[in-house]
Amino acid sequence: LPPAVPASGVYADVRAARNYTHSSKTFTVYEIHLQKDHFTWVVTKRFSEICRFHSQCKNLHGFTLTRPPKTFRRHASAKFVASRLAQLRNYFAVVGFMLRCRWVHHRMSTT
Questions:
Q1: At the N or C end, where does the chain have fewer CB atoms within 10 A?
Q2: Is the pLDDT assigned to residue 35 strictly greater than 50?
């Protein structure tokens, strides 16, 4: 079960990772659970898509978070995938915290 949803209603967690093989290439897909207020949804993303998300976030004022490092070749071992899953959980926990801070700042500046 996810931890309690913060007061702002913004929550993100990477819950699972699965390896897939297509055209003799193995890749990992990460399952990300998102919640905004009472709406929840699940998306699956490859690490390259998470890197693109990170690149777009770097354009936001005050976004200084470091994403988990890229590798030069594909790694699909259980140990590597478990390690990256833990890194992504930490990454999205901080992203969620930053979103909550932006929401609180916005709410405080508009009241």
A1: N
A2: yes
pLDDT digits (tens, 9 = 90+) for 89-107: 998 888 877 776 665 555 4
Residues 50-72, mean pLDDT to the nearest whole number = 78
| DSSP state at residue 50 | H
Element (H, E) at 109: helix 78-109
* Euclidean distance between CA atoms 46 and 64, whole angstroms: 22
In this structure, what are the phi and psi dihedrals at residue 64, rounded to the nearest 5 degrees?
-125, 15
Integer Cα distance of 11 and 97 in angstroms: 8
User: How far apart (Å, rounded) are the C-alpha atoms in residues 73 and 64?
Assistant: 26
Q: Which amino acid is at 39?
A: F
Q: What is the mean pLDDT of the chain?
A: 79
